[in-house]
Amino acid sequence: MAYETLAAAYDGLTEDIPYAETLGFLETVLHRAGQHPQTVLDLACGTGSLSVLLAQRGYRVLAADCSEEMLTVAAQKCAALEHPPFFIRQPMQRLRLPEPVDAVFCLLDSLNYVTEPEDVRRTFRRVLQALRPGGTFLFDINTPQKLRGLDGQVFLDENEDSYCVWRAEFDPDERICYYGIDLFRRQGKLWQRSFEQHCEYAYEPDELTAWLTEDGFVNIRQFGDRRLEAPTPQEQRIYFCAEKKEG
User: Fold this and answer.
1) Of 167, 100, 91, 149, whose CA–CA distance to 122 is shortest?
2) How far is CA 194 from the centre of its chain?
3) Strands 176-187 and 190-201
4) The pTM is what?
């Protein structure tokens, strides 16, 4: 399963992710739509970096992920907060919350990791049920153009304690990008090697918009990568905003 061994090294290898800037963009999208949520679900929360920021800004935060290892790191990170998030271990296609929320965020191409289209449809329906009337669903995807362009690429991430090699291969028939990840972690004077395979499905933005519409969302918009503008044909990442009907 993805992120079993990578969880402990994830934050150190992803220090360049602009969580604060991304949250600022999402808040701008919400405020321009007249939305001022108080309760937020961080769906596919990973190690909880966004959950921490949300809690620090005064939101009541629920956070869900299917990886026990990632949630363990997230809970440790949030332990000192005055009002820490409420963590739930659930896959997004089986999401069920103890109470509805005003907004759902699902970021860092987490939806691409759902490699069965019908499971994405299930996720949309579960999110709709989890939102209060008038609530907002915000998520992003890696575009098909980006995933196709990763074919054959090799990436290196490293710090003092971890060395990670990513090898990408895109299968056009399956519409899936496979990442083979070799992780080396320092154990005293030695290095321990582990391997994970991650998979991302290349969803077309327009098919996602059609599914959101069919499943009952309204006011569906697409944005370029943290820009308050429509995505370009060359966009690598697209943000979606969709609302649940009032009443």
Assistant:
1) 91
2) 23
3) antiparallel
4) 0.94
Contacts of 117 (CB under 8 A, 6+ apart): 201, 203
Q: What is the per-residue pLDDT across 130-146, written as a single tens digit (0 to 9) for each?
A: 999 999 999 999 999 99
6: exposed, middle or buried (C-beta count within 10 Å: 0-12, 13-18, 19+)?
buried
Helix or strand holding residue 183 (H, E)? strand 176-187
Burial class (CB in 10 A: 0-12, 13-18, 19+), 121: middle
Q: Of 12, 18, 21, 22, which Cα lies nearest the Cα of 47?
A: 12
Low-confidence ranges of the chain (pLDDT < 70): 1-5
One-letter amino acid at 115 equals T
Give residue 159's pLDDT: 86
Mapping DSSP to helix (H, G, I), strand (E, B) and coil, where does residue 92 land? Answer: helix
List all residues 6 or more positions away from 54 whose beta carbon is below 8 Å from its beta carbon: 23, 40, 42, 61, 85, 105
| Alpha helical stretches, state H, 42-116 | 49-56, 68-78
- For every residue of 206-217, DSSP letters joined together read HHHHHHHHHTTE
Strand duo 60-65 + 39-43: pairing: parallel
Decide: 140 and 240 in contact? Cβ < 8 Å. yes
Residues 71-83: tens digit of each pLDDT: 999 999 988 899 9
Report the alpha-carbon distance of residue 43 to residue 105 in Å, rounded.
Answer: 6
